[in-house]
Structures
1.
Amino acid sequence: MTDSNSDEFDPTAPDQREIGREMVDDSTGLGSVMAHVYRGEIDRVGTWRERLDETTTWAVTLMAAILTWAFSSPDNPHYILLVGILIVTIFLGIEARRYRDYDVFRSRARIIQENLFANALDPSQGVESHDWRAELSRDYRRPTLKVSVYEALANRLRRVYLALLSVLLVAWVFRITAFAPRQDWLTTAEIARIPGIAVVAVVGVFYVVLLGVTFWPHERHAKGEFREGDPDDWKENR
């Protein structure tokens, strides 16, 4: 195999990109190094996955506490639910930031899986990226975030936070309508001297923005782990 330290290193050359087959056939130093690299990347993926789950757990816990208190007495103000929406939105921002870091290590692990281990198991399929070694090397030299803040927010909204914020919205609407049947719901929606129509308008605009961020078509940059298809194909092919 061509020396990867040579000035003539070509990451697209067959003997350079298909090192997975050599790792299986022979015991090489590079194979041992890549095994340790992969183990380290998987460990960091797990660590950041746990941090994502912790953020979601805190958001759900605080949301449950706010919902319980808001409906425990008719005298409790309705705007506590709006405070809950604000708090959950803050957790959304924290989780989006953590997701961007998580995706860095997940992307590295997926590159190794697709181009090294998959090629070692079935060399007939080749590699997914001809210059994957150069791509991985560049990322180790200059680590960069792979997804934008917008994409990270959209991902976390679709997976978790749109559902949580929707529950809080339904609870707030119920609180200012059915929970105070003797008053006009716009009057009930007032906060101090802020008129109810202004409060409703702000909440409405906020949720329109959320829906736009969640469902507006955009190019995906995050490295996917799963492919669409029939789940039964796995069992049929075994």
2.
Amino acid sequence: MNNAKFKQDLVDTIPRLRAFARSISGNRDRADDLVQETLAKAIANKDKFTEGTNLTAWLITILRNQYYSVGRKMQREVADPDGEHAASLESKPQQAGHLEMKDFLSALQVLPDDQREALILIGASGFSYEEAADILGVKPGTVKSRVSRARARLEELMSGQESFERSELAVAESAELIQNALSAQP
């Protein structure tokens, strides 16, 4: 079907589309919006229309689907004419999580090697204490102790009780350790 014929056929169906839209929406303005949205979708999806089939039926299907899609969205919306509900919503800044992660990765490098290694084996690699003990050549109780001390020290560092140097090098080293640990999961 050539483009000019397709557009003319669309224009010819507008009265039927408007009548159907008014019958399901019960609102003249909403019906006009539905018809406009339907025609825009039909033009955008012209390649999905099979020539020789009923164009009006195809358009009414698009219109009906659009009507119900919008209806479902509107059911989830909250009426808030004076903006009280919107004012009560809050969105925390996205960058805080990123900065906290960089602090954590820097703090991880402050830990003694044996504590950092035990913590990464348990926390990032997902090994059990027994498996980590086998890997490290120590007893499970030793691994538990190292992990406990590492967590306590990280808590001190992250809460500001103790200061530490934040550096991109430390972040990169910790990120590499964790990446390697994640790829070596049991």
3.
Amino acid sequence: MLVDIVPIGDISAAVKREASAGLRSVYDCDVTVHSNQAIPEGAFDRSRNQYRAEQFIELASRIGRGEKNIGITEKDLYYRRRNYVFGLAYLNGNGSVISTYRLQTSTDGGITNKPADEVLSDRVRKEVVHEIGHTLGLEHCDNNKCVMSFSPTVREVDVKEENLCGTCSRLVH
């Protein structure tokens, strides 16, 4: 399987590297990194001061060259009535997106003592693996250590591991 990472806006080399490493280690897939893309026109919602996640997925799906494509952005994303999302993917689709905006460290409820760059790296790896998992047909998992568990806050992101639990792993392998 080939996964194409589609940077949308200004994404650091470190974030692209961590996303690639996470995907390769969990899915044993090939990963390419697309050229940087502009923020999709019309994606910004002035009333919310946030960006519509589905427009980033549409862009990644349209221009990505992989069987699965994942957009990565620093913009604050939302979907429907949710206040924000770390990422979004359609079950069994070919496109997905994650945002690093709320994965940064601050007074965000995270439960780790690692340096800020390591915390962001861990969270990026977990979120790309999680969203690609949805594109492979995986739903949210009840095991809070599984990377496919639902994470409404960074606290849950920090608790879960970077890997699929045995049940989820069997569903995709």
4.
Amino acid sequence: MTKADKVTFVIDTLKRLYPQIPIPLDHKDPYTLLIAVLMSAQSTDVKVNQITPLLFEVADNPYDMIKLSVEEIREIIKPVGLSPMKAKGIYGLSHILIDKYNGRVPESIEELEQLPAVGHKTASVVVAQAFNIPAFPVDTHIHRLMYRWNLTNGKNVVQTEKDAKRLFPKDLWNELHLQIIWYGRQYSPARGWDLHKDIITATIGRKSVLKEYYKGKK
């Protein structure tokens, strides 16, 4: 199977499994999405979705957010972890959005990356999901699967993103990054992985990964 055939197989399989793609983080507009994605760093979407309603009930826009102190924000979001850094980031970026963007979330990755506590992945998720601008945010699931599927060398997430953008059609990026995330969670997790349920890796997987899997099963 050529690399092009592998890519087509991945796209077709994911489309069949996920014709409708749910957005993992609950939000109602670009600002609440930005805050939710920022909070999801080193946490789970389930935990974030439990906490954001408590925060957004008090402040779901930058103008209300800066009425809170950093400590008040931190107290609400504490269960998601890294709360000191995230609370400072939420407070700081809310001020910048008001001062520089009239309270609106900018639509470019470059501008988003200038905001406190907003990295490349967070910025990519926001432009893709809030503004429908093609991006390919790479999280741990995508990084793991792209390596398992022999579509990247697994060197780092930067390389994985470059390879994903090179291999997959641009008009599918926003769908694919979510489909791969759901697939990774359901069929190809880091722990408790059952290759027999993971049709993509079983079909096109990297030989060394498959060998390691079967070795571990002996």
